[in-house]
Amino acid sequence: MKCSRCGIGMGEEDAYELEGERVCEDCFLDAQMPQHPCDPLAQSVADRFGRISPDELLEEQREVYEFIKERGKVTPAEILNRFGMREGDLRQIFIVLRRLKLVKGQKIDGEICYVPYEYQGQGGE
Predict the structure, then answer these.
(1) In the chain, what is the greatest distance between 2 CA atoms, to the nearest angstrom?
(2) Which InterPro entries match (predicted)?
(3) Fewest C-beta in 10 Å: which of 5, 47, 49, 74?
């Protein structure tokens, strides 16, 4: 049996029911996690904690942040390829980095890119 979302092979005992689909545990958990990087309420809570240093991030978050900062702009696909992670994992990392005002999404040449938060290049957010 295969997950109807990501296509990974799984046993019947490992399948979860999600909106009429049989999915793997990772896809099920992805669907349960917050998906909105621009949630104003969550942003106001994060702002109350003040800025944190990238050194305080989890290792995977810090590596993605440093990759974005080093390159200046990257597509989600470039990050997925570079780190071999799943889209759901990247989405959660991006939400954290966005809340902490370390990175943001920016449309550049018709493509969504992740850029350092202070990026002032072409295109609009």
Answers:
(1) 50
(2) WH-like_DNA-bd_sf (IPR036388)
(3) 49
* Residue ranges of domains in the chain: 1-32, 35-116
Token pair of 99 as six digits: 């809340």
Nearest 10 degrees: CA dihedral of 82, 85, 88, 91? -30
CA 73 – CA 51 distance, rounded (Å): 22
pLDDT at 124: 46
Task: Report yes or no: 72 and 57 within 8 Å, Cβ to Cβ.
Answer: no
CATH code at 1-32: 3.30.60
**How is domain 35-116 classified at the CATH fold level?**
Arc Repressor Mutant, subunit A (1.10.10)
Structure tokens of 31? 């669907």
